[in-house]
Write a structure and sequence with these properties.
There is one protein chain. The chain has 413 residues and is α/β, with parallel strands linked by helices. The chain folds into 2 domains: 2-221 and 396-412, Vaccinia Virus protein VP39 (Rossmann fold), CATH 3.40.50.150; 240-392, Alpha-Beta Complex (DNA Methylase, Chain A, domain 2). The chain is 35% helix and 14% strand. The protein has 16 helices and 11 strands. It has helices spanning 2-11, 30-37, 50-59, 75-82, 99-114, 121-124, 135-147, 167-178, 227-231, 240-244, 268-274, 290-298, 310-313, 364-370, 383-392, 396-412; strands spanning 20-24, 41-47, 64-67, 91-94, 151-157, 181-189, 200-208, 221-222, 235-236, 255-259, 280-284. A 7-stranded mixed β-sheet has the order 3-2-1-4-5-7-6, sandwiched between helices. The chain has a two-stranded parallel sheet with strand order 8-9.
């Protein structure tokens, strides 16, 4: 059996001349779409979110959609459903949520820091993989062990890089090494790869064996003030207006799930986003009352709650003692810059993403554009579910840049 698996890993599993991918924690499909755009064949996706998997199934009709809890579906059964064997798949991708990290990182770490214990690993946790709250990461690694891909791509939140003096990152790299992978980690900013959004995430790339080292994509874009970088051939960051300025203007409460374009594309990014799409999908705006619409109209682009005059803040039951808590309660996007990070709580925190020229919060389609989903990618489920999916996704253009680098690694292998 060992010799058969080794041969499979060496030869790879190109189908129709394409390298193959299995996407774990896949909904709605940001990583899968990025790899598909880079020329990979997506074989299957696994996620527990039923609405997200409806979106995944619709947009990846050739892939096998598996809606299940990874903790209850063993990798052997998954491989049977997906129709793959150990060592047959070239790449496994995924972003397993790590609750043990996120819980401590956002709450308990404050108390530990006050006690001078912030960086005391023995006080905080055992090994990362042994923390029961990180069981999803543990199951991700079990799937990697069973599938035996040639390359693994894992994405997670930025704070993991610095938390516990980087010990978590070192432990994850050691976990990959125990499975026979040479791994490395790097923080990537989505804006550096043509995504109209400042979004930093940590990526792990792990390569089977020792012959080829993991590496990461070089940036293709730069802040407009980076004149030296521009002279080297990098493009300026894509702005909010380049991303969404061509979409139909709609009032608060207006729009539709399917509607025609009303303007021609006005930027290179808009032309790219509209390729292959006959209409605008998921472009329905939330309803806002007259007070909110008035406040949004008064705000200048780029303004936050803290920038509003006191008389305006009083319209929101303003309490000066709580001003620090609500500094980002209301935020208006600026046209000439990339967006700040799109998060899954967008479905609740819509006031943190006010349209730069229209007095309303952004729509699902506008959020998707800011995440670099092309218009042909249609989101399923309720509007709340759609917002969650967009915020949880890996930006496809960032995923595409990673995928193109992974392809060069596979070719070397």
């Amino acid at each position: 059996m060992r010799s058969i698996l080794t041969a499979s890993v060496e030869v790879g599993s190109m189908r129709e001349g394409k390298y193959t991918v299995i996407d774990l924690f896949s909904a709605p499909g940001g990583l899968s779409l990025g790899f598909e755009m880079a020329g990979f064949e997506v074989l299957a996706g696994l996620d527990i979110d039923p609405d997200g998997m409806k979106t995944y199934s619709y947009n990846f009709p050739r892939a096998v959609p598996v809606t299940a809890d990874i903790r209850q579906l063993g990798p052997e059964k998954f491989m049977e459903i997906a129709g793959v064997s150990p060592g047959e798949v070239d790449v496994v991708t995924g972003g397993p949520p790590c609750q043990g990290f996120s819980t401590i990182g956002r709450a308990a770490i404050v108390g530990l820091a006050r006690k001078g214990l912030k960086n005391d690993i023995s006080v905080l946790h055992p090994r990362f993989i042994d923390d029961p709250r990180n069981e999803l990461y543990k199951y991700f690694m079990r799937y990697v062990k069973a599938l035996q891909p040639r390359v693994v791509v894992m994405e997670n939140v930025l704070g993991m890089m610095s938390y516990r003096n980087g010990e978590i990152v070192r432990e994850i790299i050691e976990d990959f090494a125990s499975l026979g992978y040479r791994a490395a980690a790097r923080v990537l900013n989505a804006a550096d790869y043509g995504v109209p959004q400042l979004r930093k995430r940590i990526f792990f790339i792990a390569v089977k064996g020792e012959r080829v080292a993991p590496r990461f994509p070089a940036p293709t874009h730069t802040p407009p003030e980076g004149s030296l970088a521009l002279s080297l051939g990098l493009k300026p960051y894509v702005t909010v207006w380049e991303a969404i300025g061509d979409l139909p203007e709609i009032p608060a409460g207006g729009g539709a799930e399917v509607m025609p374009y009303t303007k021609p594309p006005h930027s290179e990014y808009a032309r790219w986003a509209r390729e292959g799409s006959p209409a605008v999908y998921n472009h329905r705006a939330r309803y806002h009352n007259e007070r909110d619409v008035m406040v949004f109209s008064l705000m200048k682009e780029g303004q936050w709650w803290k920038d509003l005059p006191e008389d305006v803040r009083r319209m929101f039951n303003w309490n000066p003692r709580r001003d620090q808590i609500f500094q980002d309660k209301v935020k208006k996007l600026a046209r000439d810059k990339p967006s700040w990070t799109i998060i899954s709580h967008l479905y609740k925190d819509g006031y943190s993403y006010i349209h730069p020229t229209q007095p309303r919060s952004i729509t699902v389609r506008e959020a998707a554009r800011l995440q670099s989903f092309p218009d042909r990618f249609v989101f399923r489920g309720s509007r709340t579910a759609q917002f969650k999916q967009v915020g949880n996704a890996v930006p496809p253009l960032l995923a595409k840049a990673v995928a193109e680098t992974v392809k060069t690694i596979l070719e070397e292998m």
